[in-house]
Amino acid sequence: MVMHPPYKCFFLLIQTYVLVLGGSHYIPTQSAIDSKSRNVAQSISATKTRDHGANEQGQNDADSFSMFSGRAFTSEKDIEELATLKEQIGDLQLKLREKDELLKSAENLRDQMNAANAKLDEMKHQVSEKDGSLKYTQQQLSDAKIKLADKQAALEKIHWEMMTSNKKVEKLQEELDSVQTDISTFTLLLEGLAKTDTAKYTDDYDTKPYIFSHVPDIDDMDEMECQKIEEARKAYIVAVAVCNEKQDEESVAAAANARLHLQSLLFKSKNFNL
């Protein structure tokens, strides 16, 4: 029967224990062997009629001696092989423990990697949320910039309109000053022509006296011309008062027309007297 190395080693170990512990009961001594050999020789010569079984018994004893001698001889080799196997088993167990430690380290490293990957995924999720919030904030900022630009354009338009209005106001003020100057001038002319008290018409205009060297004589004008001039003067004073109250283009134009009408009457009467 062919035995595998592990079973062979086990069988050899059992044989070794048997030979070491109880081999003295089975292995005969040298004197016993010699005595038995002499007895066998004497028995052969004295009892030739002994059956074949006695010879076979002696042969079996010799075979048993050879077998036990061989077992005793091979037990030392088995012990060496067993020691070698034990040493190899110890090395294998040491390597197995090392591999177990490496496996545990690998498992710990795997757990750490899984935890790191989970943390990385969480950080990626947070970064994604922050990116979305940043894009939303940038969109709001862009909208705010557009609204600010619109308001800036509206403000510039209002500023331009205000400057234009200021220029118009300055122009109207200049025209009003010119009208007031003309009012003062014609008021003095009318005072010289009519020789009446017209102070109540000139107190509201902050006028300064202006003297003309050529004032037409009232005696040289007829009554109809004086009436026309008086009516034109009153109409002009009313137009100037309306212009001071409203301060618009229409009232200024009306005051200017009244002034031209009064001026034409005065110049006409002056040329007539000259």
Automatic annotation (TrEMBL):
Gene Ontology molecular function, alphabetical: microtubule binding
Gene3D superfamilies referenced in this protein's UniProt entry, alphabetically: 1.10.287.1490
Disordered: annotated span: 43-65
One Gene Ontology biological process: plasmodesmata-mediated intercellular transport
Polar residues biased stretches: 56-65
Coiled coil: 82-126, 155-182
Signal peptide (residue range): 1-22
InterPro entries: MBP2C (IPR040289)
Keyword field: Coiled coil, Signal
Name of the featured protein: Putative TMV-MP30 binding protein 2C
Organism: Trifolium pratense (Red clover)
